[in-house]
Queue: 4 jobs
Job 1
Amino acid sequence: MARTPTSALTIGILFAAMTSNPAAWAQTQPQAAACPGTAEAEQNRQVVFAFQEQFFNQHDLRAAHRYVAENYVQHNPTVPDGRKALVDTFGPVFEKNPQAHSQIIRSAVDCDLVYVHVHSTLNPADRGRAVVNIYRVINGRITEHWDVIQPVPEQSANGNTMF
């Protein structure tokens, strides 16, 4: 590939971003931990299922203390890091939306990561959002979270459901 000023600039910006805060960059990289066995991976899935049900459906904010590590790392740019920040963010959402509900449609486990595809609604009339949550579970605690959120449209360009 021929180097152009644009590609050199892009490479330079990427390198600067990676080296300006190496601790933050390293935190986003895959962990070198060994994959748990099938039984432990299934336990990790059950931790996430219990957390999702108790926290997001029953609105039991204490579920964060049972399942989420205090120094929880949050990759959603609208929510600060930490278990307290998670509770502080969602407490008012649940108060304002007492019928908020999240239905797990499917899940998968890969080593210490648990993926859940969720249909999240604020109330029964809400079309909601399709959410993919990715949780890192270590020693029975959720230690890290990523998500991708997409609104469910009124009409689709195809006949497929989002779920």
Note: The chain is about 35% helix and 30% strand.
Job 2
Amino acid sequence: MFTDNFDQDIIAEVQSGLAERRKTVAGNRVLLADRKQKHAQLQDKLTQMQQQQQTLAQCSQLLQNFYTAAQKASVKRLEDFVTYCLKETFGDDAYEFRIKYETKRNQPEAEFVFVRKDGAGVEQEYDPKLACGGGCLDVAVFSLRLAVLISSPQRPRKLLILDEPFRYVSQNYRANLMVLINTLVTEFQTQFIIVTHAEDLKELGMSGKGSLLQLGMSNSM
């Protein structure tokens, strides 16, 4: 009798333990299912974020390509304009103007160079400040200042005030320079006020007194 009761107690204890284990297993299954669901949600969010990042990267690349193309077009127009002014002043054998971009310390830097073909037809680069006559640099700087003025998005008054801008241009090129400046005045409706002591350059002015020379008419002056 005692043995039977003992066996029943053991059986009851085992059954109770199994029941607890079943509850634990069932709880773990629910927890596992919940974790799987959360993992799936996180995976979906991760996939969505990766897709968004990919889309942003594609858009960024597209904008960068567009900006690069627009930048190259603007640089080419600037190069062509300065080259035009150089050749109109010094003839067809004059230097061509180029802008070289390099990335230094993660920042783009521009370098201005003059280019001319040698006897073998190979282009050679020259530093405008060192290897070229001062007159070429005078005309190039004048052209750059004018290009900045006429291309400004703020559309300021088209007026340039210059102090001896062509002091190093040889006298035998000044007639060409006169023609060029009068052409620019007409084409871009620009006014120049120039301080100069060069008598031949004063012939350009539509009005002038002493060393002050005015080219182009202005309603406000």
Note: The two ends are 129 Å apart (CA to CA).
Job 3
Amino acid sequence: MLDGKSALITGGTSGIGLAAAKLLRSSGARVAIAGREQDALERARKIIGGDVLTLQTDVLCRDALGKMASGVRYAFGALDIFFANAGVAYVTPLATTSEAQYDALMDTNVRSVFFSIQAVTPFMREGGSIILNTAWLNQVGVPGRAILSASKAAVRSFARTLSAELLDRRIRVNAVSPGLIETPILRGVGQSEHPGQTESEFRDYLAGASKLIPTAGAVGARLSLRPQFRRGSMRLQNLGDILPRECGRSPSAL
């Protein structure tokens, strides 16, 4: 389905990014993944396949984003699909959140997304596809998630504004909005208001929160190149509380 197409995924070493990389490669695309840790990139390479391009990248550094873009351009010539997936998530209670915590979350989830798009669009093909990973939190209010929710709402806005800006090149910019999925980021430090919770309590939390999000298919539903032209849209996703080990879903129309 994607034979001859090229794709870049930031945050591609685990979770949704890794699953998307596997899906795109199995659909015939040439795939590049970017991540911070070389060890994680090597593990992902073995999972995805030996021909995947791995790029050690700090998305907070504009020079590093430039090197990432140059590496992809040198290897692929041009880019068809960009999945801006890198991000962080942790609780930020109003009473206790520091300025450093605010800056770290917004810089990673908002600033890096904008400048990664800026880095890759010069060599994206006409008719290409940019997919932004937002979250269900941009739609609802959850205590302790004010900054994370705001960051994801900003990314949702990027899909609208940048799709208009790139319209003359027919580059689509759309967003996916996943529900709660058990990935390494969800298990990360600072994720839970109750860090001492048991496995059973954690499962109950996932099950309860996931009821807030309507089911709407899989992340792969935005990662394709079909004749239909859609831009600035967001697809709500409830993928369940555990990301499938094998992405047994085919890309569908944007």
Note: The chain has one domain: 6-237.
Job 4
Amino acid sequence: MYSKKEEIIMKKPLFLFTAAILAMFIFSGAVQSATVYNLKMNVIYPPPTTEWEAKYLTTHVFAKRVAEATNGQVNIQFFFNSQLSPVAQGLAALEKGVTDLWNGSSTWGGTIPESDVIWLPYAFRGAEHAMHVMRETEVGKLFDEAYRKRGSRVLMYWPSGGMIFIGKKPIRALEDVRGMKLRSSYALWKGWYQRMGVSPINLAVAEQYQALMRGTVDATIYPEYTLDTYKFSEVCKYITVPAVVDPGMCYVLVSLNKWNSIPADLQKTIEKVALEVEKETIQATARLSSEALQKAAGKGVEMTRLSQMEFEKFKESAMPAWDEFTAKSPECAKMVKLIKEDIQQWEKMRPESKQWYDKWISK
């Protein structure tokens, strides 16, 4: 028989051992629940020049908010200027895990035909309309499904600004572009260029400034903000609106392999943050474009607003691009049908449409 004191002494090691085992289980569970997911984002563009533009929001702000919302369980590191992979190899980089996120715009029309929908000339009537098409119609679903077949999915969209004519000569009518040397932007536009009677010139993005300065090309079709950030206002004194593509749509893709490795609750949190940032990019890009146009005007850049009649002529001239896109796949044909129907409804029912026409079409 043991005294009470001896029993207590004998039970103490057992208690400590049990407590230690219990602590190990608790600690193990805590460690398991706090698994950290590190994601690498390849950004095809140079770093942002402001702390409020869309490019900054979809990189710095997005990463910060995701880390905060997930209590540090999801960390995103971004790399500008395609540091992780060349633009042409972006899809392969996502598939192979070289990068987990890709931030840029469509460059794979030959591989994913449906991705070229964002480059259809005169398909959108501003950022609100473009977001509506990609988020609220089946066009966006078809777009995302096309990427899913190649191992990624769309996480968010963001507008980069209207793709306008920026040149050394005024363009006030469709006839004015005939004979011009125009930078060749996208393969989808080849037939359109031929119909307009322009000479397409192949130039890398970084070569545009020198080519415009030297007269190698007469004009380029590029976002409004580049009048400021690319200093095009120094060598070009004429711009023409409405934009050919308004806006140029960018987006963030995520590798499905990486995405499927992340727990569902964290996925929902990331999606929630992405949609919040996506909405904020609309006003951010509007501000960036507006400030660039104001600065350009201060440097003597003349803006031409097309008349309704000339706008209709430009739209008609672009039909070869629409026809070429339609022929690429049944899904592309469906997208075109949906967009044409949606434009009619948008222009008939939405006040944003009237605001767009009032802003960009001359009276």
Note: The two ends are 108 Å apart (CA to CA).
